[in-house]
Amino acid sequence: MSTATIGDIDVSYTEAGPQDAVPVVLIHGLAEDGSSWAGTQQALADLHTFAYDLRGHGRSSVGEGDGTLTQLGNDLIAFLEKMTGPAVVVGFSLGGTIALWAAAQRPDLVTGAVVLGTSSVVGRSATGFYAGRIELAGDTSSQEFRDAIRDDTAAALVDGDRLDEITANRLTAIGDGRGYVNAARAMAALNADPLTPSLTNITVHVTVVGAADDTFCPYKAAQIVLGALPDADYIEIPRAGHLMNVDNPDAVTDALRRSITALRSTTTGRKES
């Protein structure tokens, strides 16, 4: 694991694969960190992958978080500018929303995107969910918060055999909760200010990946994204909930490999740093 100072934060990331391959940047979801992509980086060992911890998640510092998607998107753009140059960007859930924001702003850097379990707008019930979790995250050591994250994790899985392990990993990624709160505020803001209108500005190809049993981000959310994107396709992962890379990692890896292979021909190469 390496660290780079980018803007006002120190960003922790894991780099894997051959240096001369087209770079692929992996962005995790809320209550996760870059280690959630460890299996993917191993399975895609022939690709040059970067998995970084979002602001305030895992080992990345929180800096002056302002609770906006714009800031998280600019963090990604700064990472691309400093570490990779033009790249294919893969994002899960929150990470997918960040990837779409950046693709709309900088098609010269985001040469293609794959977004998994991703929404461009959230409803009132989701806004209430985020508000409740933000309140509890004032004390991430409390049993009430830990139970809430366990419940959220269970609801995001079809197969709960690894529930305790995955919950523990997520609590570690959340840490003191400041990054979690910052990102949850950014997602909650999509109720009043949806990203959907900006998707029409995306000129690169986007693959939208959904999970058959995802109750957090159901197919309706994918339809909204697909309906706004000028150039997109859809892949569905069977036998998986929202945490599809836990429930069915082989199918996710296959979808990513197929999508990234199709996108790599449009990628212009790696910036030397």
UniProtKB/TrEMBL annotation:
<keyword id="KW-0378">Hydrolase</keyword>
<dbReference type="InterPro" id="IPR050228">
    <property type="entry name" value="Carboxylesterase_BioH"/>
</dbReference>
<dbReference type="GO" id="GO:0016787">
    <property type="term" value="F:hydrolase activity"/>
</dbReference>
<protein>
    <submittedName>
        <fullName>Putative hydrolase</fullName>
    </submittedName>
</protein>
<dbReference type="InterPro" id="IPR029058">
    <property type="entry name" value="AB_hydrolase_fold"/>
</dbReference>
<dbReference type="InterPro" id="IPR000073">
    <property type="entry name" value="AB_hydrolase_1"/>
</dbReference>
<dbReference type="Pfam" id="PF00561">
    <property type="entry name" value="Abhydrolase_1"/>
</dbReference>
<feature type="domain" description="AB hydrolase-1">
    <location>
        <begin position="23"/>
        <end position="249"/>
    </location>
</feature>
